[in-house]
Design brief:
The complex is a heterodimer. Chain A has 6 helices and 6 strands; from the N terminus they run E-E-H-E-H-H-H-E-H-E-H-E. By secondary structure, chain A is an alpha/beta fold. Chain A has one domain: DsrEFH-like (Hypothetical Protein Ychn, Chain: A), CATH 3.40.1260. Chain A has a 5-stranded parallel β-sheet. In chain A, helix 1 packs parallel to helix 4. In chain B, helix 2 packs across helix 5. The longest helix of chain B is centred in the middle third of the chain and has 17 residues. By secondary structure, chain B is mainly alpha-helical. Chain B has a single domain, classed as DsrC protein, C-terminal domain (Arc Repressor Mutant, subunit A), CATH 1.10.10. Chain B has 5 helices and 2 strands. The N and C termini of chain B lie far apart (27 Å). Helix content of chain B is 47%, strand content 10%. Chain B has a two-stranded antiparallel ribbon. Classes of the chains: A alpha/beta, B mainly alpha. The interface between A and B is medium-sized, with 25 and 34 residues.
């Protein structure tokens, strides 16, 4: 039997195809464990050549607030997935301890902290936006925000921006 | 895994065309792989490819973009310039390595 060799396939990187796939991720939570899902997905999408926007609203502002972005916390209170006795979770110092442990785990797998992650995402071409209503409520303006945030935009602006996009709400 | 031809030689590739045996790779093959996806290799490309191959040989995994930056000293921005749009996948392809499996 003769083995016929075919030319090796060339991966379809789809560069020449204008796929128009676009992703908008709404980050509405400011705890350490809820910041990462949006950041990880944004980074992955950018690595696939997808236009990606992150919109920070309500508690999600802590992720882009200069004062808080490096100090997000994880609270085990009310979280059954910690598999720890609930009565212990509210003890003083527990949030600090749980936060410390989670940060160590994140660092252990070489995933960057929040400020560095945002730098990586914007280096990869990702766009960061802040929510107008949250900014007004919290009396925050551009100078309080991470300098790579492109602007504070209204809900209507976001709807316009996300036309044709897939939206993920975190 | 199938045996296929590329240029004038036989190589083992997966369904998409990524090499499945990194030892079948050499610099001449890299040029062929690169040109098949429209890339012309410069010194900066070679630096990325060489780090990725050395890291894969040492750790058994293709480095992610994050690792290319922290360990390889090649910034994310530069990777997007060298291998536009899908830097990790394109670099792996040209370097004769599997796609990175890490999330970040």
């Amino acid at each position: 039997m003769t083995l016929t060799l075919e030319p090796a396939p060339v991966p379809a990187f789809d560069d020449d195809v204008e796929t128009r796939r676009k992703l908008c991720i709404v980050c509405s939570k400011g705890s350490l464990d809820m910041a990462y899902p949006g950041l990880v997905l944004a980074n992955a999408a950018l690595g696939e050549g997808i236009e990606t926007h992150l919109f920070f609203t309500f508690w999600g502002f802590d992720i882009i607030n200069r004062e808080t972005m490096a100090h997000l916390k994880f609270s085990p209170v009310g979280n059954p997935a910690t598999h720890m006795p609930p009565a212990l979770m509210g003890l003083p110092g527990m949030t600090a301890f749980a936060t410390h442990m989670m940060k160590k785990q994140i660092e252990g797998i070489d995933v960057p902290d929040v400020p560095e992650f945002l730098e990586m995402i914007t280096d990869a071409g990702g766009h960061l936006w802040a929510c107008r209503m949250s900014a007004d409520m919290m009396h925050i303006d551009e100078k309080d925000l991470y300098d790579r945030v492109e602007g504070i935009i209204s809900a209507a602006d976001f709807i316009e921006l996300s036309e044709g996009a897939q939206i993920i709400f975190v | 895994m199938t045996v296929a031809t590329l240029g004038d030689r036989e190589i083992h590739v997966d369904d998409e065309g990524f090499l499945t045996d990194p030892s079948e790779w050499d610099e001449a093959l890299a040029e062929v792989l690169a040109s098949s996806i429209g890339l012309e290799l410069t010194e900066a490309h070679w630096a990325a490819i060489e780090f990725a191959r050395a890291d894969h040989a040492a750790n058994g995994e293709t480095p992610t973009l994050r690792r290319m930056a922290t360990e390889g000293g090649i910034s994310t921005k530069e990777m997007f310039t060298l291998f536009p749009k899908k830097p990790a996948k394109k670099m792996s392809y040209v370097a004769g390595l599997p796609k990175p499996v890490g999330c970040v």
